[in-house]
């Protein structure tokens, strides 16, 4: 398909780098940072992974050339995590060498719980070699409190989100009120002890809590940022930025948009209502 249909265009910036960069430049004009996500995951052939590595290499170089306020997010299954651990790490290392050369951040997106441990192990190893690596943790997983300690012991650079994958009750907190409370508990420790903390949430309760905590504890602005998904609550982005806080928008692009769009609705049924609600919420 050569273009994004109207119903997905709100959430996916485009098919190619040029379309994605047009969105990045518009957001940069509003003093908003972007993390770009080239769509793709769970590949089964090494050549597919190598192709993604090449695309990320080009992406990083073009971000540097255009001097954009932008970094990138990557899923390790698109680099071959399902194929071979060392193959995946070598692919990530190639990307990280270029990212460090241009001083561009790279965030390891967190996938389902079957990948959590392997993703953290790769992050811990990469954090010893590369300066610009960071990772995503999910507040609804039971294990995340222990994982926070591991990230703080590595380089303390993390994005905390609630979590969206469908998980069994022995692995994940199910009640939203309890997820929110766990998020608040974890984010306090991260903001006090972390090096760069990304507060990824559309929840007003969490956003207000974090702003109050940041101001009360005089957390330096270069140690945190708020994050939201492209297409969600644009007026809220602007309000947070106008209050003097760093704001980053997660912007996906690529020809595999359909899988991304469908999965985001299907991962948890709550997401369907969340997306519909946020179509009309600012």
TrEMBL record:
Pfam families: Pro_dh
Reaction it catalyzes: L-proline + a quinone = (S)-1-pyrroline-5-carboxylate + a quinol + H(+)
Binding positions (substrate): 75, 263-264
Keyword Membrane annotated: no
Gene3D superfamilies according to UniProt: 3.20.20.220
Cofactor note: Binds 1 FAD per subunit.
Claim: Nucleotidyltransferase is one of the keywords in the record: no
Proline dehydrogenase domain mapped to chain residues: 24-275
Binding residues annotated for FAD, in chain numbering: 110, 138, 162-164, 201-202
Cofactor: FAD
GO molecular function, one term: proline dehydrogenase activity
Pathway participation: Amino-acid degradation; L-proline degradation into L-glutamate; L-glutamate from L-proline: step 1/2
Keywords: FAD, Flavoprotein, Nucleotide-binding, Oxidoreductase, Proline metabolism
GO BP terms in the entry: L-proline catabolic process to L-glutamate
Documented EC number(s): 1.5.5.2
Name under which the protein is recorded: proline dehydrogenase
């Amino acid at each position: 398909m050569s273009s994004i249909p109207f119903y997905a265009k709100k959430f996916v910036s485009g098919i190619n780098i040029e379309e994605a960069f047009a969105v990045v430049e518009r957001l940069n004009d509003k003093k908003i940072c972007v993390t770009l996500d080239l769509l793709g995951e769970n590949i089964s052939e090494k050549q597919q992974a190598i192709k993604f590595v090449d695309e990320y290499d080009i992406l990083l170089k073009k971000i540097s050339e255009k001097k954009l306020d932008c970094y990138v997010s990557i899923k390790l299954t698109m680099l071959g995590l399902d194929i071979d651990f060392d193959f995946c790490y070598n692919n990530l290392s190639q990307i990280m060498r270029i990212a460090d050369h241009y001083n561009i951040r790279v965030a390891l997106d967190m996938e389902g719980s079957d990948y959590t441990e392997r993703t953290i192990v790769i992050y811990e190893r990469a954090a010893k070699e590369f300066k610009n690596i960071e990772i995503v943790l999910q507040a609804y997983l039971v294990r995340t409190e222990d994982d926070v300690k591991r990230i703080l012991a590595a380089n303390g650079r993390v994005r905390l989100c609630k979590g969206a994958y469908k998980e069994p009750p022995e692995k994940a907190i199910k009640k939203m009120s309890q997820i929110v409370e766990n998020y608040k508990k974890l984010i306090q420790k991260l903001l006090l002890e972390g090096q760069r903390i990304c507060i990824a949430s559309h929840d007003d309760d969490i956003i207000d809590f974090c702003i109050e905590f940041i101001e009360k504890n005089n957390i330096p602005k270069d140690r945190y940022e708020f994050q939201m998904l492209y297409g969600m609550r644009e007026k809220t982005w602007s309000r947070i930025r106008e209050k003097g806080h760093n704001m980053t928008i997660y912007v996906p692009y690529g020809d595999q948009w359909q899988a991304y769009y469908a999965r985001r609705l299907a991962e948890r049924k709550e997401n369907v209502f969340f997306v519909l609600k946020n179509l009309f919420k600012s």
